[in-house]
Each structure stands twice: as structure tokens, then as C-alpha cells.
Amino acid sequence: MNKFPCSKRENNALRFPGSLLALPIIFCLGLSSPSPAGQDPQNKKPAAAAPKAPAAVPGKTHSSVAILSIAGSSRLDLGEETLSFSSRTTPAILKAGPNSHRLEDLLFLDFQPAGKKKKPAALKEMAEVVLSNGDHFWATPLGIEPIKEDDFLIAACAGISQQVSQKKGQLRLDLLGVRLLLYRNAFTSERQWSRFRNGLLKTPTKNDVAHLSAGTRLTGFLEELKRGSILFSADGVGEVKLAAGKVRALEFAAIDEETPGSKKKGTTGARVAVFLRDGGALRGELKSIGEKSLALNHKLLGAVSIPLSQLAQVSFLGGRCQYLSDMKPAKTREHLGSLFLARLPFRQDSNVLGNPLKMGGKTYPKGLGVHAYSRLDYDIAKGFKKFQATIGLDDSARPVSQPAAEKSTGAVVFRVLLDGKLLKEKPMRFSDSPLDLDLDIAGGSLLSLEVDFGGKDSSAALDRANWCGARVIK
Questions:
Q1: DSSP assignment string, 303-340
Q2: Residues 6 or more apart from 111 whose CB is under 8 A from it?
Q3: Which pLDDT value is given to residue 116?
Q4: Percent of the chain beyond pLDDT 70?
Q5: Are 110 and 68 in contact (CB under 8 A)?
Q6: Pick the residue with more confidence: 109 or 5?
Q7: Which CATH code is given to the segment(s) 322-473?
Q8: What are the extents of the domains in the chain?
Q9: Residue 313 CA to its chain's centroid (Å)
């Protein structure tokens, strides 16, 4: 492993369910005068609710999938009917039992296990593998294998299998595509894990770094990796053999080379984001969906297969629907009030703290997490006709001591503006249920999403707001 600085990790005790990015919990107070409230031109004619997944049938014995499209929603019992897709057809069609859906009209597939919701089983994998493109999954690092001039990470993974010839239950991944390995046993809580994880992801490292559970940080390069031990060549120290149980993380140096697989031609499949039940997430080209599994062409992992039982949601990217979390705002304005210089920047596909977007106990894979005050402007001059989202306060905005905090915390005002004109305004508190929006934006060129202070004393405490599933539709 002298060629490339690397980092890896392994442990197997704690399970951290939502591995969308997580950051430290920050309590911020700020004072500011609320912006003048505009008049809602649509209050006489409420917007229609965005499509919702139909409720699961009580007592069902088979797993099911909710199909949400621009036209509406339906549910398919996977035990009785078949879900299928092939990228070879033109136009691409998803068949769900007796119904067919054009791929460009689909929003997402929401998979539900059979029977009552059960507590997720503890993960067997020792580490979270974070890839250079931001995707991540759980696996157990087994070793490093040199192939020609490159080094490959060999890892055991129960939920993902590569279609190239590999040993059963193992993955092989070019180390150039690995950003970070986080060993689960080194952390006592999800909060500690998420704070540490996001701290490392903020700034790429120029060398491999071994982060030990005792707080020691070794800089150098990875020599050897085994399931229970790591051989690391540390600057100024030399080779050090580390027990895997004593390592928090192995951080890989950023290499200024083309990402592995980036020259490969894309497939004719649809671009999708696949969210796994254990919290992992992969993006790629959808090749097919069959009775038991989904086939995905991934930029770094190649052609992979994922059992339907491991899927939580599949979001369709592109087509007539475009998620704002996949777009860069034309302009942002964010602050915590007139008395504070600090700000909490918005986050894509996570709440403002970096944790999974969660409202009313439900987790949303796609969306924007913000903190008052926030205004995000998006260029939509491409023929978009609808804006849809589910808005509300993140579950983390609920005060610990409700009687003392109810009047001043966890309260915001949502506003949607089109070319500066107010389309929708809605005050919301942490105790309010999420609200679906479905607004007409035809002919507009600039869509603005604003979250203002809503507390009685203009406090910004716990003003953690979410635009879940925020999307524009052609």
C-alpha cells in the first residue's frame, strides 16, 4: 500500500441506523425582526396535496412497494404481483402488476417489509465505507489485494453483490474510490459517530490518516489491512501494528487522478438513488428490477445486485422530475439573527445538523435541511410547471423541556416565492404535522424557498426546518 495513502476501520457493536450525513447537535439562539408577511394569493384556492404513498394494508403477509409518479400513486403486493423494469425498452417502462409507468414520470419507489414494523436487526458489518463520490454502505474490511498497478479493498457485505466474479458475500473496490472507513465499535453513540464522521468529511486529507480510539492521530500511509489488525507506516514513528478494535477511522488521501470508472460509458438505464434499509445509499444507472433483486451500474462498484428485501427507497433522478437537493442554488442567504455572525448552512438530503431528514417519525431520503433564517434561490427557467415538497420542523427541533420552551423555540415561517412574488406562506411549529405543497410555477424563472423566524420573541432556537422531497416537475 505504499502507492496511495489510505484509511480503513473495523468494529462490530453499535448500529447507527441512518447513515445519511450527521453533524454535532448545535443549539443556537438569535434575535431578529421577522420579515414582513406577504399575502398568499392562493389562500382562496388551497394547493392540491402532493402524491402520497398509500397506506400499507393491515395484516398483510407479503412485502409491498408504493409507486409514486407525477400522475399519482399506487401500491403493489410483491408476494402476489410482479415488479419489473428493463433499460432495453424505448421509452423505458416500469411494470407494476397490471399497470405500466413511463420512467420519466416516476418520483420514487417506497418498499415496505411484510407484517408489522420490526426493530431492525443489528448490523453484522464492522465499518461504514464512504466512497469518494459520497455514496456509502456497511461492510467488513478483510484485506488489500494488489492487482496489476492498483490496490483493491476486499470487504464482506451482505446486502450488495458485484456481478463480476467474486467470492460469495465479498466486494472488491479500487482504493482510489474509497474516502473513509469508520469502525463502528469505536463509538459509544450515534451522535459521537456522526460528529466525528462529518468532521473528517469537511476537508480532504493529503495523507492517509489512522484515527485511534484513544484520540491519537497517525499520519502516513496504510501498509496492510486485515480483519483484526492494521499495519500503518506513521511519519516519524515507522511501522505500527494496530488492533482494529483500537481504530476509529482510516482516512484515505485524496488523489489527484481521474476517479476509477469515470471513463466508462454510461448505460441506457435511468439515474437513481438507492437507499438501503441499513442506512446505506448508492447512486447509479438502473439496469433492471426483477422479482427478487435490483441491478445497478455504479460508477465505482461496477454492476451490482441488491435484494429487494434490502431496499428502503429508490428515487428517480432526471426525467420530468428534478430534486432541488441535486441542484446548486443560484444564491443563498443564511443567518441566525442580527446579533450573530455565525450561520448554519443548508444541507442536501439531510437536516441542518447532518442527520437524516425526519418529521413525524418518518425518514425522508431526499430534501433540504435548513435553519432560520434561510433563503435559497433556484434557477428554474427550463420549463418546470410544478413545485412539490413536504414541509415542517425536523424531529430534532422538539424542545427537551417543552413547557419552558414552547413559546419561543421550534417555530418558523415557510415561504415560497416565484420571481419575487409570494406563492405560499405557512407558519409552523415543532408540534405541527408535516404539510404537503403542490404549487404552480409555470412560466417562472426563479424559485425562492425562505424560512423565517417564527417564535414570539424572534428566537432562532431549534428553528430546524425541512423541505423534504423538494422537487420541480416539467
A1: EEEEEGGGEEEEEEEBTTEEEGGGS--SEEEE-S-TT-
A2: 63, 64, 65, 308, 311, 312, 313, 314
A3: 59
A4: 78
A5: yes
A6: 109
A7: 2.60.120.1060
A8: 127-251, 322-473
A9: 11
